[in-house]
Amino acid sequence: MKHPDDDELFNRLEAEMAGTRADVVDLDKARAARETDPADVESEDPTVPVMVDRPAPAVTGPGYLGRLAGAKRRDVVPLWLRSVAELKTASAWVARHYAHATGYHALRTPVYAARLALQAPTGLARFVGGTMRWMADREGEPVRLAAVRREDAAEYLKLSRQRDGRVRLRTLVAVLGMFVGLALALALYVLAPGWLQAVSVSALVLALGAHGRKADAPVIHRAVELPKASKLTSDIVLRALGAIGIPAINQAQSKGRDGFEFTAPITRDGPGWRAEGNLPFGVTVTDVIEKRERLASGLRRPLGCVWPEAESEEHPGHLVLWVGDQTLKAAPKPAWPLLKSGTVDLFKPVAYGTDQRGRWVAVTLMFIAGIIGAIPRMGKTFLLRLLLLIAALDPRAELHTYDMKGTGDLDPVGEAVSHRHGVGEEDETLKYALADFRALREELRRRTKVIRSLPRDICPESKVTSQLADKRSLGLHPIVVGVDECQVMFEHPEYGKEFEEIATDLVKRGPATGIVLLLATQRPDAKSLPTGISANASTRFCLKVMGQTENDMVLGTSSYKRGVRATMFAWGDKGLHYFVGEGSDARIVSSTFLDAPLAERVAARARKVRDKAGLLSGYALGEAPETVTGPTYDLLADVAAVVPEGEERVWNERIAARLAELRPEVYGGWKGENVTSALKPHGIRTRDVAGTTEDGTRTTRRGIVRADLLKTIAERNEKPGAA
Ligand SMILES: Nc1ncnc2c1ncn2[C@@H]1O[C@H](COP(=O)(O)OP(=O)(O)OP(=O)(O)O)[C@@H](O)[C@H]1O
């Protein structure tokens, strides 16, 4: 007969035998080996297989100190108690709750009194009836009747005697009580002042009214309906995990195991419960996130309450499950700290939304290039406006705002503080925007030169700092450019390529020079958000999208696969988005909701601060833009000029050097890569080109084919704006 451990034994032996020997294993011998010390076996009998699992050494892994050093310490003081803002918010909620309850009941006091007075006769009847029953010892009656039915004379006599004694005593107490009561009433009637009489009678009536209440008609109703959130227990979590249809969990549970190993107790975490632990081997958190809806069904909680997450420092099978008391949408949001007062230092993180647990999430706008993507009507414009308002609150920041949708959503910011502001997709606006973008490119070049020329001790990291931004003479103040519906720019038949070229440059080199580009689009695809831009953006905000392609376009390649899926947001989840940036993993954030009047209020405050500091400029002052530095050059023509006929294939580094010679003020400092990225938007592909270096070595480097260049120029001339 097969021993029940044989399978396990085989599995263990498999690893040992694989590739090393092909002996037929004698199971009895092997079993015996399991019971003997493997070390002995190894030394004494070479034919017996060596066990794969060694007995645990006395000390496993790092020593005590090592384990202590690596231990994860839980917070002594919870986060919400450490943050003054969160403590204030929590206290304000509690205060508001009780103020509301007090007001609610105070207003209804007369109604409550009338109801109680009406119920007083019933209460009196109940009181009298109850007293009579008590005096007559009615509670013992069923026992006495049972004795009668059993015809048990001895028992009956015993019970009757006891009852007689009890009735006598209770009657005495009742009569005494009645006399005391009457005497008290008489004394009150004769001696007490009017108010005390009134209070006593009212108290008596109310007490009788309360005694006469019906169970199904409460006198006092609740002032607030508290959401009922049941406690999250391990049973509920296991039940839900077993119901989502992951085979490894189901198999474990069918064998009587849990299928999930809790690594910490289930605790309260903000306005919800947090459970964490290890999924079975091979199951990842992404597998669970994919089945979030089923998980919510298993937990019997609304979808908006259930947030399974991975923890970046743990293995991919470590699940952190946070279950909120209320859906993210319904949960009360703390007031935005910058709503009524305060200014911003763009070099520091600024709170712009809250996470599932109601904690502030901050964004540092400096040194980023951000993209915002979503399907229409999910709150993309509101989010962009919020970020621009944050920028507006740093008086040093120069704002360039473009609302290509043309509905005026960015006007509160634009009218109040923007240096450049454009609304609509008319040709005039696009020309204005293009001129501004060209000026920004020039500014970018100027800034790179300024930064390069600064001594190391002033500019140690070769990028703008808050101190450098303060020095107006250097002109390195933050510039924040926000474009809503940016696809209008990039898809424009005439200016699209140039917009793309400049925006790509701003995304790549802008952050270090203090220029921040924020682009929002409702159609995140390669045309509306060119890959040169989407791939280089450092910060991403993705509200609800419909599919994997859009998701990865906004959040970065493979995000969908890793379980970062903005497709899971519901239609009503406005303002809810995945936020990638600030050097951390994707986080779910509910952005602060500021409607147009609130936005106007914040913008007006921002304008006041700027006005005081004398930092208002451009559009906000009603100034027309200075004559725009249009393209004083044509890149394609310039490249054609430096690649003479006969030179069919040429290295980009050579083109860069020749361009720099041709127009040092424009192409000074260009390298081969600059040529590559500048030509890319025009559709000119860079390939491997064989050539000879200055010292005569034959080698292959990146370059272009002259025919491609000429073809693109011809197409452009034929169809103005095509390239
Ligand atoms: N953070 C938020 N919280 C709650 N509701 C919001 C939030 N942000 C936006 N909304 C609501 O969503 C609606 C749509 O917002 P918004 O105009 O920003 O969408 P959009 O994605 O820009 O749409 P479109 O693509 O049509 O421009 C707004 O009218 C607003 O009421």
From TrEMBL:
Lineage: superkingdom: Bacteria
Gene3D superfamilies: P-loop containing nucleotide triphosphate hydrolases
UniProt domain FtsK: residue ranges: 347-552
InterPro entries per UniProt: FtsK/SpoIIIE/SftA, FtsK_dom, P-loop_NTPase
Transmembrane segments: 167-189, 195-212, 360-379
UniProt keyword list: ATP-binding, Cell cycle, Cell division, Membrane, Nucleotide-binding, Transmembrane, Transmembrane helix
SUPFAM superfamilies xref list: P-loop containing nucleoside triphosphate hydrolases
GO annotation terms (biological process): cell division
Region Disordered, annotated ranges: 31-55
Annotated positions binding ATP: 374-381
Protein name: Cell division protein FtsK
Organism: Streptomyces griseoaurantiacus
